Amino acid sequence: MAEERKRKPMIGLQxxxxxxxxRGVMVVVEQRAGVAKAVSWQLLGEARRLADKLExxxxxxxxxxxxxxxxxxxxxxxxxxxxxCDSPELASYRTRPYSRVCLxxxxxxxxxxxxxxxxxxxxxxxxxxxTHLPTGLTADSTQLDVDDERxxxxxxxxxxxxxxxxxxxxxxxxxxxxxxxxxxxxxPRDEARSAEIVVVPPQIDPEDISTQVLGFVESLERxxxxxxxxxxxxxxxxxxxxxxxxxxxxxxxxxxxxxASRAAVDLGWIGHDHQxxxxxTTVRPKLYIAVGISGxxxxxxxxxxxxxxxxxxxxxEAPIFRFANYGIKGDLFxxxxxLAQAVRARRSGGLSPEGVxxxxxxxxxxx
Amino acid sequence: MLxxxxxxxxxxxxxxxxxxxxTNTLVRLGVPAIINYYDLHGLEEALRLKxxxxxxxxxxSMGPPSAEKALRQCVSMGADEAVLVSDRAFAGADTLATSxxxxxxxxxxxxxxxxxxxxxxxxxxxDGDTGQVGPGxxxxxxxxxxxxxxxxxxxxxxxxxxxxxxxxxxxVERVKARLPVLITxxxxxxxxxxxxxxxxxxxxxxxxxxWTTNDFPTIDRAKIGLRGSPTIVSKTWVPEPKxxxxxxxxxxxxxxxxxxxxDHLYSTDLPQKLGWA
Lengths: 367, 277
Ligand SMILES: Cc1cc2nc3c(=O)[nH]c(=O)nc-3n(C[C@H](O)[C@H](O)[C@H](O)COP(=O)(O)OP(=O)(O)OC[C@H]3O[C@@H](n4cnc5c(N)ncnc54)[C@H](O)[C@@H]3O)c2cc1C
What we know:
The complex is a heterodimer.
Chain A: E1 25-29, E2 31-32, E3 35-36, H1 38-54, E4 58-64, H2 68-76, E5 81-86, H3 95-109, E6 113-117, H4 120-132, E7 137-141, E8 143-146, E9 152-158, E10 163-169, E11 175-179, E12 196-199, E13 212-218, E14 230-234, H5 244-254, E15 257-260, H6 262-266, E16 287-291, H7 297-300, E17 308-313, E18 326-329, H8 332-347, H9 360-364
Chain B: E1 2-7, E2 10-12, E3 18-19, E4 26-27, E5 33-35, H1 37-53, E6 55-62, H2 68-77, E7 81-85, H3 95-113, E8 118-122, H4 133-141, E9 144-156, E10 161-168, E11 171-178, E12 181-185, H5 197-205, E13 209-211, E14 231-237, E15 247-248, H6 254-266, H7 270-274
Parallel strand pairs in B: 1-6, 1-8, 6-7, 7-13, 8-12, 9-12
Antiparallel strand pairs in B: 2-5, 3-4, 9-10, 10-11
Helix pairs in contact in B: 2-5, 3-4
The complex binds flavin-adenine dinucleotide.
């Protein structure tokens, strides 16, 4: 048996109490292979507003390997100063080495607020460093503000999105929060902005890197519901897995993704990553089309913040209609194909017959 | 023998939580308590390892005395021992104070039944929804954390290495770590089993071990409960229920309904926001 690393449990942490030197709002930029997650720039946009209100600098922390370009990008997206820690050991995210860099930067440069995306990696990292420091951490914020006492007011949904709660951390610095993707707006990228770049020495302890990332398989099939602008979701009304291909056609025509209710997932018609709702993904696309979904509360809490909601259901009493901006009462098997065809026709300028058109998803996505 | 610890929380069944329309507060009275959904997936994975390799499975929970019921349910599924840490002094804990008490509990479990090899947690709770307690516990115990695990690919007891698949937004990451580790479970990890008849019989007689603050001589009372929680809820409010006036579209003719819907959508800011031509 291999020798075990000696554990040094950290139960019973002490913390500083003089926080007067803590100034500045810091965003930890998340990246994979040198490409930043959209939420990082969105957070810089919102944090710019907070920093201006506090009259303190906006800081960004970029961790990775060969990420100098990203450090400049962080400046273009609003940061005044960018800390960069670059090392081959930091190429892929791992909790311990990344935590060590964050802790070093926080202790050395003393930001009063630290924000990260509420992504899988962001929550993993934030939970670890808030415990180390220790400090208070608010998860999954959807509103951020600061008050006259320089307190961060981080508001987040609670009780399955039924309520919002504003959470403060008065006794410790930095005040920390993770924030949801797609809620805040990034500043327009501006190459005329230039940020001061501060190089942080890598903090690598060989014991920290015993965890190995063996590989990453990008799932092309994987739906990214969180970032989708358009979602076409299907429920038990689809009657079987086959009808999801109709939804896929409509989603492709609109440049969107396919979502599902739990009933459809539990019946094995589609994978769990498509599930929207309390025990699935919370989404806020610009357009949500609910097809053959009754609108149970556990489903609705996951999609009610979509900008526009369309419901297609044969039962005009279905609760989903209470949340829908547009309702079509009728048989989905008639309406969905008609809608897909109409979208294709409209988006091609109505000139060509459907079928010979290039799929709209190629033209529509991301522009 | 492998020692697996599963952290569970009893949570109010949030389907049943309603907002009182008059007072705008949560109505929690009479809301049934259930085991946090994701924690059951953590328990199931521990039980699978027990089936395959033989293991001791200890379930721990911090909560009110009524959480004994949740612990008995875990015993009925196959857990060996169940520990409830329960004390008024723990009430009002945020994630930092909770991870402190849970980590202390696991240390005490280790003193009693041997060092732990894997700690399982759910990816998050249905009521708190933070996903922060797992990383907090791992950090305090100084063990590696593998969060958002959708598959446990292999466990090698010779090399003491575990390989898992972590679910990320854009794909799946395969990670290998050395025991001891803390794993947070996703629903994709497995399908929790039903209680077996012998399990039910054992659970009926089983008395969970209950520890209070007095069972932790070194506990720092400044770090538990409300007092030990750096975060404060300053305000809660019910967001204005979205008053949606549903626009009904004619539905006798599907093509006409489709066209009418598109006309409406094109009259909004959607085409501009979505970059539609
Ligand atoms: C703890 C817990 C967590 C849960 N989490 C989630 C969650 O995350 N997400 C989720 O979605 N659910 C969740 N649920 C389940 C939820 O309560 C509902 O059971 C589920 O959302 C129902 O799915 P549905 O709307 O597809 O099915 P149904 O309620 O059966 O609705 C089917 C609808 O299809 C319509 N229909 C049928 N045929 C047609 C047709 N030909 N054309 C048009 N319309 C048609 C019907 O009128 C009906 O309204 C959860 C439940 C629990 C207890």
